[in-house]
Specification:
Elements: H1 2-20, E1 30-36, H2 43-46, H3 50-57, E2 60-66, H4 73-82, H5 86-89, E3 96-98, E4 103-105, H6 113-116, H7 122-128, E5 133-137, E6 153-155, H8 163-175, E7 181-188, H9 192-198, H10 203-226, E8 233-238, E9 244-245, E10 251-253, E11 263-267, E12 271-276, H11 280-288, E13 294-298, E14 317-321, E15 326-328, E16 337-338, E17 352-355, E18 363-369, H12 373-381, H13 407-436
């Protein structure tokens, strides 16, 4: 029994030592977070990405990132950097309305801190701890004074600024700033813009666009190597959402169901936010049977799995189109691709790739949640995270300084250990039995209680 216990202790202490990894990477750690908007997860399987695949070979790949509902740009980018669901961080759509202040939010009117102050993004936290700086190139919200703070270095948003110019600014700030930039973000509008225009099933156009994306990744890597940043910088490449194919044969025309004078449409397809101008129940009744390809919810009835209910910016009625269907007014939509749909759909999921001293090499992982990225980034940077909806343990297997074992490996190790212990126990029993078997000519032994002589004299 003692030997068995000793073997178990030695086995598991060896495993823990082997899995714990090396946490001695350079301090202070630096992290660059990169987003290619609308990069659907399965693009990686369906197209060639030589530069990105080389990046992945030196690091880790998460094949699917389950994003938050609604699967749109502003909400998911803010979830990445706060670790919060949309109902918690307050950026609940690309277009919003606040009934108390009568304020409107859109992608062209997004600079009011009022909309962003319900959460604390990681670039703010990074600057408030020790003597650190953050930098940003176009990431949503980084040009806004959130909690009276912007990144030390940032660019006002403009689609006309090239990717190369954004990279040049970010790499300069990472190289030559004082205090040092330890956290930086970089954003690019593609392949989202082309996904909307052509649809993800347009292989010819998407192949061309995605090759351009891969070349941009190659440019970024080359720039980091030239400036001596490559070896000590942790880089995460990810996205906010995927994309699905749409068609003019899959339109849901609200004008056939309800008069426009009865409501205001705050956010359009594929998740439409409806603000009734008349009785809420009356508007709901007119809409609920409008199309078999659209679910209609009163705010209180929105499914719990969406985590999309407990915020005043979520309107009284929400319409959710089925995948590939488009909600329109009087049949008007030119999009062949769209996103925003149910976040359980694989077509809505992005991916995550990462490499650097904090990450394993050549490691693949199936799925994490988009809110899990935030606590992982805080760990890498040594920051104390704000309360969030992410789970750090979901990303431990990606990091070299964390002990990680998944369920199949755990089962294999336990079965292997039991087999080894069973074999060893059997060997010990066999050896003991061999030693205790009497030899044919062994000397007879008198028992202590045997008083009778063996031979009568």
């Amino acid at each position: 029994v003692f030997i068995m216990k000793l073997l178990v202790i030695l086995l598991f202490s060896g495993l823990m030592t082997g899995c714990r990894g090396n946490s001695s990477y350079s301090l202070p750690p630096k992290l660059l977070l990169v987003s290619f908007d609308g990069f659907r997860a399965d693009y990686l399987q369906n197209y060639e990405f030589p530069h990105l695949q080389n990046f992945i070979k030196e690091g880790v790949l998460v094949e699917h990132v389950k994003n938050v509902f609604i699967t749109k740009t502003f909400p998911n980018h803010y979830s990445i950097v706060t670790g919060l669901y949309e109902e918690s961080h307050g950026i609940v759509a690309n277009s919003m309305y606040d009934a108390v202040t009568k304020k409107h939010f859109s992608d062209s009117n997004d600079k009011d801190p009022f909309w962003w102050n319900e959460a604390v993004p990681i670039w703010v936290t990074n600057q408030l701890q020790e003597n650190r700086s953050s930098a940003a190139a176009m990431w949503p919200g980084t040009d806004v004074l959130i909690h009276n703070t912007t990144p030390s270095y940032f660019m006002n948003y403009s689609m006309s600024v090239s990717f190369e110019e954004r990279v040049n600014n970010i790499t300069t700030w990472l190289s030559n700033s004082n205090p040092p930039v330890t956290f930086a973000t970089l954003y690019w509008e593609e392949p989202d813009a082309s996904g909307h225009k052509y649809g993800p099933e347009d292989k010819e156009n998407m192949r061309r666009v995605l090759k351009e994306i891969d070349d941009l990744i190659g440019y970024l890597v080359q720039k980091l190597k030239m400036l001596g940043l490559w070896e000590n910088l942790n880089v995460i490449i990810t996205s906010d959402h995927g994309m699905t194919q749409c068609s003019e044969n899959r339109w849901i025309n609200l004008d056939l169901c309800i008069d426009r004078s009865n409501y205001s449409l705050i956010d359009l397809s594929p998740v439409a936010a409806v603000l009734p101008k008349i009785n809420i129940t009356e508007v709901y009744e007119k809409l609920k049977n409008c199309s078999p390809h659209m679910n209609v919810y009163l705010k209180k009835d929105i499914p719990n799995r969406y985590y999309y209910q407990h915020n005043d910016r979520i309107q009284p009625i929400i319409l959710i189109a089925d995948e590939g269907w488009t909600i329109v007014l009087n049949k008007s939509s030119s999009k062949l691709g769209d996103h925003g749909y149910d976040n359980s759909l694989p077509s809505m999921h992005p991916f995550l790739a990462a490499r650097g001293p904090a990450f394993h090499k050549g490691y693949k992982y199936s799925t994490i949640n988009i809110v899990d990225i935030y606590p992982m980034m805080c760990h890498i940077l040594g920051l104390k995270p704000h309360p969030n909806n992410g789970t750090f343990s979901h990303t431990k297997c990606l990091l070299v300084d964390q002990w990680c074992i998944n369920l199949p490996e755990a089962i294999g190790i336990v079965i292997g250990a039991l087999l080894a212990l069973t074999t060893l126990t059997c060997l010990i029993i066999i050896m003991q039995n061999r030693l205790s078997v009497p030899h044919p000519f062994s000397r007879l032994q008198l028992q202590e209680d045997d008083d009778d002589p063996l031979i009568d004299l």
